[in-house]
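Minutes, methods subgroup
Present: GH (chair), OT, SY

1. OT presented the first of two proteins processed in the latest run. Sequence and structure tokens recorded below as shown on screen.
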Amino acid sequence: METTPSTILRFMNVIFWVLFIGLCIKTGAILVSFAVSLFVNAEGAKDLYQGLDLSQLYHFNRSLYIQTVSLFIALTGLKAYIAYLVVKVFLKFKLVRPFSQQLVALFSQVSYYAVGAGIIALIASGHSKYVLKKGIEIPLHWGSEEILFFAGVIYILTLIFKKGAELQAENDLTV
């Protein structure tokens, strides 16, 4: 069986839909269990999401717990929104005319939101180090370096697509 670019694009579109839905579910689950741990039962902090135990932090300092989980929710929410934007890229992308201003705008949004997610991850990483100095370990890897690297790559792709869209529009005018 021969793989064509359109088959690979369809497969990647399905992958990003699954990723988007999974990140939405993860964000919602964290949000609900966070609300439960705050307003219903403090024991909810023991298993916030897939075994994530922040009960020590909750009992040590509730405001640090709220800050930590809020950063986690913001980061997963931004990742979900970035996945949604990538799904929109797949919906707009056409192999016949790959460069368009719509794609440039979507790539720009992805890169901006990725920078925002990277900044939130950097803040969260610093916050985790601060909490660790207090003697409480937060079992989360924020991935700030990876996210910022991703943002840089997307920004470069945005510049390439912007130039491609300009060249394609200029070519359309001369033909």
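2. SY then presented the second protein from the same run.
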Amino acid sequence: MPVVRPSDAVVHEMHGARFVSYAAPSTGSEELCAWRGEIPAGTRAPAHTVSREEIFHLLAGELLITLDGTTHRVTAGDTVIINPGATLAVENPATDTAVSWVTASRGLEATLADGTRVVPPWAN
């Protein structure tokens, strides 16, 4: 289906954040996945290493993104390029929910620090 309406998006919640999946194999995308992330104030997602490149664009709010051990303050309008094999952690130290738009190729997986592999349903 070439047009995905908000009512067609699939919502997932993980690590205190909300992921709203628009482009995925389930909605007709063959190569890419795209989702909106909603990261509430005070949320600290665990560090994880990604298997595929992610393009993370912050639409609203402010986040601390630690990428391979270096922390960056990211504000609305900033884009973070996360290469395969990079380790990142996301934290919202602000008082408002941050909203992001993320794109990755399908098949994205994340590995937590304890070795647990996560296959995000919104990216597969």
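Chair's summary of item 2: The first strand starts at residue 10 and ends at 14.
Next meeting: continue with the remaining queue.
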